[in-house]
């Protein structure tokens, strides 16, 4: 069991180290064929491009295909995602788009070419979006597992964003910060209908009329056909499907096999996971999102000096959230998703999860995340960095959680699925920047003290670490009482540490100190 202790002085030391890593930042404008997949931590590129998000809408249906969320539905969901991710990887390579991220059911790509021609980039993005839709309607599997085609919703926006290094310790990829990335994601996630949805910014750039509700007005067939003609992509659906099938024959996905990880998750090496070596435990999924960050980026991106602060803020906040989750509470970061961290945590063994202890640890962890976030903002302000308008929204939910890596050999990506993963993201989205929310399953795992903290709304504002620790422990929560006792023991130990020797300047000389008679006196 993790000690579940958050200490301000420890957080401050980590934050100081992270600030030192980004003391010097270089902001550059994106130029032709710049490699964005190996950005150093201290460099960022300002990119004028079109952002495309593709959301696979029926992942939730796959996870709900059985009454109980057992291994069968999760194995089918993994195969469903793997088939479609491999197809999309091939599409993006064929059309020379930048694959930014494929987080579970959600793809983010950037179209930077042709340079200096926004309208042509948008037409190209529309054509690529339709290509993804058409290919993924054919990439199901009629075998024994009956994997359905993907229902896809595309969101597109255009404008300037800041490309920075995403991830740590060998799991890095480009990350784009700014309004076009965020608004494209919101269009993709803005409803349950399939199709291609543009922001009014993108519509205006290609001389389409603005609409009152961007989430309810998909492009019609005529508009899509016009963009396809303008883009004139050099690859067809049939060619992509043929190559995809050949790749599956040469490199079959293989069977998904699960084993339980010996908890806690902090020592889980995700980079060695494969479909045949996947993990599955009852666990809590954690989504912690930096609220207000899109507006913050938009206000700072145009000036080089303030853009440098964007990089500093992101690096410090996300690194500290990762440290809190892993070092302080024994959890594991799965992915950075934009300005959000997704992680998992649990208490118990490889075979059995202690549900009440896990829920209490998750509440304390959420409190630690918020306390560290506040501490980091204070440290950034002390360094002269503007952090106005930033908050932290945290969502938690519990249930069977499967973790593996999916995709093409040599480019496999981390993936954690479960009904609780989708639910924890939903809980995060219903929070303001000072709130934490529990899903219904996690609420059921809680002790009476934990349920009292969140009440019937399952949402609580201002829940920092000390508040969570005291409210849980005072009401008899076992995990919190143990954490408070461990914290007190650490404090007592530090007070009892041996005093260091006095400096030599204050030592008495080694000679007889008895009274002596001055010379000449009897």
Describe the model.
The structure is a single chain. By secondary structure, this protein is an alpha+beta fold. It has 2 domains: 1-26 and 254-493, Alpha-Beta Plaits, CATH 3.30.70; 31-245, Alpha-Beta Plaits, CATH 3.30.70.1230. The protein contains 16 helices and 15 strands. The protein has helices spanning 8-21, 59-63, 71-94, 118-136, 179-188, 200-205, 221-231, 237-250, 293-300, 304-328, 355-382, 419-429, 440-445, 448-454, 465-474, 478-495, and strands at 26-29, 43-56, 98-103, 106-111, 152-166, 173-177, 195-198, 258-259, 278-291, 332-337, 340-345, 391-406, 413-417, 435-438, 459-461. Strands 8, 9, 10, 11, 12, 13, 14 and 15 form an 8-stranded mixed β-sheet that branches. Strands 1, 2, 3, 4, 5, 6 and 7 form a 7-stranded mixed β-sheet that branches. A hairpin with a 2-residue loop joins strand 10 (332-337) and strand 11. Helix 1 (8-21) packs across helix 11, helix 3 (71-94) packs across helix 8 (237-250) and helix 15 packs across helix 16 (478-495). It is globular, with a radius of gyration of 27 Å. It starts with 7 loop residues before the first helix and ends in a 27-residue tail after the last helix. Residues 499-522 have low confidence and may be disordered.
